Amino acid sequence: MTEDYGLYIHIPFCAQKCHYCDFNSIAADDDLISRYLDALKKEIKLVADKYYSPQLQTIYIGGGTPSILSGQDLSTILNQCRQKFDLNSNLEITMEANPGTLSEEQLRLTKQAGVNRLSLGVQSFNNQFLTKLGRIHSKDDVITSYRLARELDFDNISFDLMFALPGQSLNQWENTLQQAIELGPEHISAYNLKIEPNTVFAQWLEEGKIEKISEELDLKMYRRTIELLEENNYYQYEISNFSQPGYNSRHNKIYWQNQEYLALGPGAHFYDGQFRGYNITDIKDYCHHLEAGQLAIAEQNKLSRVEKIEETLILGLRLNQGISLAEFKKKFNQSLTEIYEIEIQKLVGQDLINQSKGRLFLTDHGREIANQVLSSFILS
Amino acid sequence: MTQVSQNKIRNFSIIAHVDHGKSTLADRLLEFTGAISEREMEEQLLDTMDLERERGITIKAQAVRMDYESETGDDYVLNLIDTPGHVDFSYEVSRSLAACEGALLVIDASQGVEAQTLANIYLALENDLEIIPVINKIDLPSADADRVKEELIDIGLDPDEALLTSAKEGIGIEDVLEAVVNRVPAPDGNQDEPLKALIFDSVYDSYRGAISYFRVINGSIKPGMNIEMMSTGKKFEVSEVGVFAPQRKEVDEIHSGEVGYMAASIKNVKDARVGDTITDADNPTAKPLPGYQPAKPMVYCGLYPVEGEDYELLKDALDKLKLNDASLTFEPETSEALGFGYRCGFLGLLHMEIIQERLEREYDLDLVTTAPSVVYKIYKTDGEVLEIENPANMPERHHIEKIEEPIVKAEIMLPDEHVGSAMELAEEKRGKFKNMEYLDEVRVRLTYDMPLSEIVLDFFDNLKSRTKGYATLDYEFKGYQEAELVKLDILVNKDPVDALSCIVHDEFAYEIGRELAKKLKEYIPEQMFEVPIQAAIGNDVIARETVKAKRKDVLQKCYGGDVSRKKKLLKQQKEGKKRMKQVGSVEIPQEAFMAVLTIGD
User: pTM value?
Assistant: First the structure.
């Protein structure tokens, strides 16, 4: 296992909350942003000290909407990281951006500060659905932002796309995929809408204003996604992720390979190899802790061996390549096939997982009902 | 504690219909005599099991000792033995009554005498007890003490002797205590004769073994004494004796006429059998007390641990429950679908539910319960007669000459406005109308002969809901009667699941099969493949439903490194599966095995 860490930085501000979103974000407010930036600076120092200025292989600035901050502020954050952490020479720095809030200056400054991967929250190329989702951008904003980024030499761009939207047809989803393919980002994340509690969508669902699409159609859309993207040189490497060869998200792969990542910002999650935990979610409370010179960890749990094993499985199997049996054995001193002998036998028999060339991975069918498969690997 | 003169001891019970205020009255008596302070008082103190308090019913007999100074200034010891009020537990009542000389008959002033009240009076009279009628809840606006008094005449009691109380408001409590002192006879045992004591209850204590609750008839019992259980001849040395105050309180000796408990390192629960007689091993009494007739189970079901390895735990738990519940019977049984378990016999549906709940709560067992069944008599063509308590064991149709099923005499008491709907229900459930009589201007008693199998399948709940909760039901075994019965099999994914088989009347078989298949479709969650559910009689499939396959079940969203959230979802999914029984390749939830009970809901 590598000594290098990933680093996730959470920017908890949004211009407007999307109708499906239950992530930690609030409306932007200048005073609060500046208080947050001060706290973040302190946190960078505290976290770097805690882990003795560790080497980072990836940085991921997520949100909320990172692009709501000015290019200057984003550069400052990255420069502070540069001072305190040991940055790998081929560091991947991803920034999530909302097409509706991107400016040329911002893109230029962040590029200069080292951002080399842009993840655009496109979601759809259909304005009607964008409105329904509560997005503040239009289809044209996406095209404009994308072209701008290309002009400024961003050569690794990802689109987030969403399907299984209430009222969406298979054709409409195909249209969105086609338009994404035409623009040609290096990476595409495609995931189905999950209506989370305490969101506008959840309320609409309860009031009968929207209706969930059928499991059958959801499945059709998912299968079509895989098919269409593969025809166009995007290969699925994880349940919801596709890329042109060589453009997997290195940061997200850290999660799936159960490697270490550190966290900055309110509500951000970390796993340092021993402890899994997360920061205080409330932004003011978060700031308050850091202003007092303390880390703002809300909760952390030391993982047992069994928990580490479970998590290695439920994360690793999300990747199409699955889990290397040799690496597993090296890490846990016990063979995976021994620990899960009965489960594996059963799941192989049901054609849900497969074992070949020293790796254990989901079959196509297994991927479609991955929850059923992955839950079998929960031991506790 | 110094010895109390036997003529200052009174042993009594309270008998009542469910809800007529028995436990509240008991609580007031305890409070009044200072057996427990108001501060310590938890509502319905005598109902010590969580289950009892939740359901507001008494299941187990309980004993408590009270010290009372009467109006004449004499000090008395009053032993109250509480009894269950539900129809399923009349056996428990008879046990308790055998240890008493008197009984308070509590009647709700607005409800009047009910079926269960009568049954309990008969039990009290059989045991030769002095009955003191107590008309309770006189504070209620709907109270009609005069009407209740008239009803007392009808059942042969003297209305002038009735006491008027409101246990809730604390009215008439002292009158009750005075009546106990003045009207219940003192015990007439002989202190000098060899020990003779009746075990009326036993509980299991994991540290001290079986603890017996007993009433001393003759002689006395104290630590160090060698005692003998007369039914088994087994001998034990008494390590502790005590009284109920109301928690167990150690004393030096328990004398004739008194009620107490005993610990004697009795490891095996079967050696402290309720109804047995305890005597002095070195100076035994000549003849044991009559004891009790063990109650006969009326309802059977299979109990299976969800996790096969819990089989031994289930056995231990059943052994322990059996210690203080002689009416529970169980025998090992194997089901193709459910593996190893027990076929258990119960007094009724409530009894079954309570045992099941106690096993799950007190012994932390996850159980699958099959639908309740009664005992059928199968006359085979070769002349052999079988008693079948598990539908799965029914021989094939062409080997059967005839089948007989148990019939009960069912008495339904209810206000006349609900008679129509009750009769409709009774007829739907194959009841044969016998009689209808008015007990007064509004209250009616309907008498039906009904197959017990229909009663155990949720008849009472149905009756309650159709009569807005007004009807009460009482039933007694009448005999066996031939009936056109068939075995209905359920096939899940083409394989018959023995634990889902049931025996039904030919006329309704088609309808029940269809309904059952439909219910099972609701209960069985989507699996990874399509699962056909079929109902069949012999080789004829009479109904078919299909549980659709789960097509897509995958968490796609990444949640930015929040692994615990993903894991929580998967854990929930796994937990859900744990509560299911793997039958062949299909996961069937526990409730599905009781699905037949929910038909018609």
Answer: 0.67
